[in-house]
Design goal:
The chain is an alpha/beta fold. The protein contains ten helices and nine strands. The protein is 38% helix and 14% strand. The strands form two sheets. The protein has a seven-stranded parallel sheet with strand order 1-2-3-4-7-8-9. The protein is globular, with a radius of gyration of 18 Å. The structure holds manganese (II) ion (2 copies) and cobalt (II) ion. The site of one manganese (II) ion has 4 residues, from loops. One manganese (II) ion (MN) binds next to loops.
Length: 281
């Protein structure tokens, strides 16, 4: 079973605007059996209003509440149209926002029944001036996050702790079962000339995170987008961490995190090379 577990659509305000049908045709061409559409869910207005840092990242972080219905309608129409060629799941990539868990639970309780497959991701951390997107640019990450915490590796530990909090959070029965790009904090690692490797403390946090994920039977988003980011050059998470997850029996799900149709399926081959053979897990 060849599955694409993480993809975006023309509803994404920071995407290419290309019709989702083009993404799906590309997935069919590459012989995917299953394709999950996981658009960025809306974020609370109050959160966006108070957020700091690059305004573009805040303004384009998710779809608007008013777009949920047109989004679900369009994606479900495509799901039907291509049902005999590919199994399409419709869902969301939901942000974990520590201070807005009630809002997120309410959102999931309202729309969870329309979601086939979803991802829970951390894209924001507290930083200079307030909550800030961590995936906008090296400079923005440096000014807003690294300088706030004092070092790249300390910021990394805070990110991982927040991902742990997302796994432990009670967001109700529709909480997504897959945890997104658990090392997104490495996206701009090559921008810095300090030590940006995964610290000893971070490895301890990762061990704890994976243990919790395996207890709760969550899946790992093996997100290949980082391989294609000039300042990153590795998947989220890197291969050694994927192997640890496999040893714990955590289901690994490939994700291209495509925001353009020509990104569908990227890194799939590297992903299959990553995976440990069944008898070595
Ligand atoms: Mn995105
Ligand atoms: Mn994401
Ligand atoms: Co994504």
């Amino acid at each position: 079973m060849k599955k694409e577990g993480h993809s975006h659509t023309e509803f994404c305000p920071h995407g290419s605007g290309e019709d989702t049908e083009l993404f799906i045709l590309e997935a069919i061409k590459q012989n995917f059996d299953e394709y999950s559409i996981t658009e960025h869910a809306p974020l609370p207005k109050e959160f966006l209003h108070k957020a700091a840092g690059a305004q573009y990242a805040i303004d384009t972080a998710g779809i608007k509440l008013s777009e949920i219905e047109p989004y679900l309608k369009k994606m479900n129409d495509l799901k039907k149209k291509y049902a005999d060629q590919i199994h399409i799941n419709v869902g969301f990539e939901v942000d974990f926002l520590p201070e807005y868990q009630q809002w997120t639970s309410d959102f999931l309780n309202e729309y969870g029944k329309y979601m086939d497959d979803s991802i829970l991701s951390v894209h924001f951390l507290k930083g200079n001036g307030g909550d800030r997107a961590i995936d906008y640019s090296g400079q923005d990450y440096d000014e807003g996050i690294v300088s706030y915490y004092g070092s790249f590796q300390y910021a990394q530990e805070i990110y991982l702790q927040t991902v742990i909090d997302s796994v432990e959070a009670d967001l109700g029965k529709y909480k997504p079962k897959r945890i997104g790009h658990i090392t997104l904090c490495q996206k701009f690692q090559k921008y810095f000339d300090t030590d940006t490797s995964i610290s000893q403390n971070s490895y301890l946090l990762i061990d704890f995170l994976l243990k919790k994920m395996s207890e709760k039977q969550y899946e790992l988003d093996c997100n290949m987008a980082g391989l294609y980011k000039e300042l990153c050059g590795v998947s989220y998470p890197p291969r050694d961490i994927v192997a640890k997850a496999q040893h714990l029996g955590i289901p690994i799900v490939y994700g291209s995190d495509s925001h353009k149709s020509n990104e569908v399926g990227r890194g799939y081959e590297q992903y299959t090379n990553f995976l440990l053979p069944v008898n070595a897990r």
